[in-house]
Specification:
With 383 residues, the chain is an alpha/beta fold. The protein folds into 2 domains: 22-200 and 364-382, Glycogen Phosphorylase B (Rossmann fold), CATH 3.40.50.2000; 203-362, Glycogen Phosphorylase B (Rossmann fold). The protein is 34% helix and 15% strand. The protein has helices spanning 40-54, 101-112, 126-131, 150-162, 172-176, 228-237, 251-260, 264-267, 274-281, 299-306, 319-322, 337-345, 352-362, 365-381; strands at 22-26, 58-64, 74-77, 118-121, 139-143, 167-169, 180-183, 186-189, 194-196, 216-219, 242-245, 286-289, 311-314, 329-332. The chain has a 7-stranded parallel beta sheet, sandwiched between helices. The protein is globular and about 60 Å long. It starts with 21 loop residues before the first strand and ends with a helix. Residues 28, 30, 38-41, 82, 84-86, 123-125, 144-145 line the site of 7,8-dihydrobiopterin (HBI). 7,8-dihydrobiopterin (HBI) is lined by residues 28, 30, 38-41, 82, 84-86, 123-125, 144-145.
Length: 383
């Protein structure tokens, strides 16, 4: 006997759950997942898998042997790890080591491609982009850094030309670093070939703080491209304490910082896991972001917003697309310390509740999964 189920009243617009997709994510070949070598890719993959599985999709992850990703099932591939792209020069030729894990992962992907509706590449490497046209199952590429080399730029531009919509990036400014491409008489900004997908964090790990102390925060790898010296100078002029957190990556650079700012060592609290990091961050009046380069995204900005901490950032790269100027932060002309000082003096005009609200509406795991799901469906519908 089939029980009659009341049909919902016509006024209720049911958002249909998507038909489950069978997705194969192919990870970065520079190191096993969980080793930290994959940098932002590990976090993106963890967050994506969690959000997409909650929306009913079937996920398989292909990664170098020794990879761990929470409770996500991983197909581990052995082989020689790939040298990292972000330490090479613009004219560095493509390198494929003998017995490369990159080659092994893509051989597996080709053999198994019929099991999947879509293959998603997360490697910033030439091979997967070159192989795109040889696959029958569509291959999408989530590009995780800005332009670094001619070889990669050409491989990415080739996919943009042959398969519009198959490229994804964190931010528009990151996509714009791949320049413009002239096909015949027309010139296309490469950014138009990218789906802009932004990023996300697990908001449950961050606690809102309505009433901060007097300190400012600076978060990030201690390395020249992050511009820590400007934050120290601005905090000194503003006579505000500064808390420095992050991985001490470049010892030589840190020594020059400490020579110029002897109190910097007292400000440095080390590289803390998220739970302890957010305990410090949430009590700060604002986060200072002083990047010298085009940040592809700037995850620390959304960590601050999730705690209710407004962001004062140079108007450059990813942070400039995250901060809502005048509400959840201030955008300052790049490399302009007096501009930072003026923004610090205007922190009280910013709304800490608006910061948390922006994180919840734009940077939750579900918001991220929805953006990727819409990108994937647009690709599959046009195959
Ligand atoms: N280098 N060759 C290569 N391949 C990658 O996938 C790669 C990299 N360097 C850094 C990196 N990925 C990630 O840490 C960033 O994309 C976030």
């Amino acid at each position: 006997m089939v029980r009659a189920i009341d049909s919902p009243p016509a006024s209720v617009n049911i958002i249909p759950m998507p038909s489950p997709l069978r997705l194969l994510f192919v990870s970065t070949p520079v190191g096993p997942l969980g080793s930290g070598l994959g940098g932002g890719v590990e976090l993106t993959l963890t967050n994506l898998c969690q959000g997409l599985r909650e929306r009913g999709h079937h996920i398989t992850v292909l990664a170098p042997e020794g990879s761990k990703l929470g409770n996500i099932s991983i197909v581990e591939i052995g082989g020689q790890l790939q040298p990292t792209a972000h330490t090479q020069g613009r004219s560095t030729p493509v390198i494929i080591p003998g017995g490369s894990v990159l080659g092994g992962m893509w051989r597996y992907a080709r053999q198994q491609q019929d099991q999947f509706d879509l293959i998603v590449n997360l490697a910033y490497d030439w091979l997967p982009f070159y192989l795109t046209e040889f696959f029958s199952t569509p291959v999408a590429h989530f590009v995780t850094m800005g332009s670094l080399s001619e070889a990669m730029d050409q491989a990415i531009q080739q996919v943009a030309k042959q398969f519009p919509r198959r490229l994804g990036a964190y931010t528009r400014s990151q996509a714009e670093t791949f320049g413009a491409e002239t096909f015949g008489a027309e010139t296309f900004g490469m950014a138009d070939a990218f789906a802009i997908l932004s990023s996300a964090i697990d908001l449950d790990l961050y606690d809102f703080c309505p009433t901060p102390g007097s300190a400012l925060a600076w978060l990030g790898r201690i390395s020249p491209e992050k511009g820590l010296e400007d934050a120290l100078e601005a905090a000194e002029i503003a006579q505000a304490p500064l808390k420095i957190l992050g991985k001490l990556e470049d010892g030589e650079y840190w020594r020059t910082i400490c020579d110029r700012f002897p109190h910097a060592t007292d400000c440095y609290l080390g590289f803390l896991p998220t739970r302890e990091l957010q305990q410090v961050l949430r009590q700060c009046r604002a986060l200072l972001m002083t990047p010298r380069w085009v940040e592809a995204f700037g995850n620390v900005a959304i960590e601050a917003l999730a705690c209710g901490v407004p962001v004062i950032a140079y108007q450059r790269g990813g942070p400039a697309e995250i901060v809502r100027h005048g509400t959840t932060g201030w955008l300052v002309p790049p490399d302009n310390v007096p501009g930072l000082v003026d923004a610090i003096a205007s922190i009280d005009h910013l709304d800490r509740h608006a910061c948390r609200h922006q994180a919840e509406t734009e940077y939750s795991l579900d918001a991220l999964a929805l953006r990727f799901e819409q990108w994937f469906e647009a690709i599959i519908q046009t195959v």
